């Protein structure tokens, strides 16, 4: 396929003209493993490494090439490794905050148009986790679509109830249920992948991300998958790196390994987007610096009491807001808070001891 069909649109052409490349080839990063990349111009794929200069100039790992990036490559189709000189400015970054004391981001993929968040309807179904993924995608400014997999594991009534429940919790999201096994809804899911669009599939290990791609690839589909653990339906991390795959119709899809945990998310904006009904309620609250917990007369709490706002949705909102507040603190503040907490626990234990309890 041509570079244009491979996603090289005006945004990138403005930054680099392939016809006047001065020995550089613009190519898309299709896979990254341990610092080595695979790059493709749509016609052929070659291995490439980043230059020391690129790494030296990088402010953080976010500036390293990642899957979906357009890179300027020297010696693109030479026998040995090509070298990635620089990365073109991205249209979007799908990233998550990783757990830890300092704020670090992990880049999942670049230049993604739509992110499919996959969640199983079988064992492991978890609305809170789904909401976290949704916040992350909204935060990245990428269109989210929720795919509920393994619909074959539910009865018709259960399926209807669960899908309705998801709709209530995330009223703005597009939601589709399907099964890789009995293939119900599979065609509708396939229709969401348009030629030339770049997509990413994210979600816990074992939810069926790679199986979906194999189904969409049809006979050529031979991507590696593993059965889930029987006792709890947990996935075994069959996909181990991110890879850009081209479907027959020309849609480009990044398959990702299931994330072990989503870590602390960079929430603020994502929360506003995901919980915009609550944000609106909060704006009408008469208390100017209300945290919307336990204050009589609070507009948000009133909505919960009147049943306008689902309690579970409210609880999740408050939990994420607390997390966001914690994440916004500086490292010093966190350390300080940790110290206070450990002092508190020590004195608590002490007081228990005095009472002879321990
Ligand atoms: N019953 C049922 N099983 C499915 C469905 N989709 C996938 N599976 C099975 O679930 C297992 C895990 O599927 P994968 O496609 O490897 O899951 P994944 O999301 O790619 O997992 P990671 O690569 O580890 O992140 C495989 O044994 C699939 O056959 C489905 O719709 N219904
Ligand atoms: Mg997989
Ligand atoms: Zn309030």
Briefly say what this structure is:
The protein is of the alpha/beta class and 358 residues long.
Q: CATH first level of the largest domain: which class?
A: Alpha Beta
Number of strands: 13
How would you describe the shape? globular
Can you tell me the number of structural domains? 3
The hetero molecules present are: guanosine-5'-triphosphate, magnesium ion, zinc ion
State the fourth-level CATH superfamily of the largest domain: P-loop containing nucleotide triphosphate hydrolases
Spatial sequence of strands, sheet with the most strands:
10-9-8-11-13-12
Using only CA atoms, what is the Rg? Answer: 23 Å
Mean pLDDT comes to 85
The H-and-E topology, N to C, reads as HEEEHEEEEEHEHEHEHEEHHHHH
Q: In this structure, how is the largest beta sheet organized?
A: 6 strands, mixed
Low-confidence stretches: 261-267, 350-358
Structural class: alpha/beta
- Within the CATH hierarchy, at the fold level, what is the topology of the largest domain? Rossmann fold
- Percent of sequence in beta strands: 15-25%
Per CATH, which architecture of the largest domain? 3-Layer(aba) Sandwich
| Total of helices | 11
Helical percentage? 25-40%
Distance between the termini: 71 Å
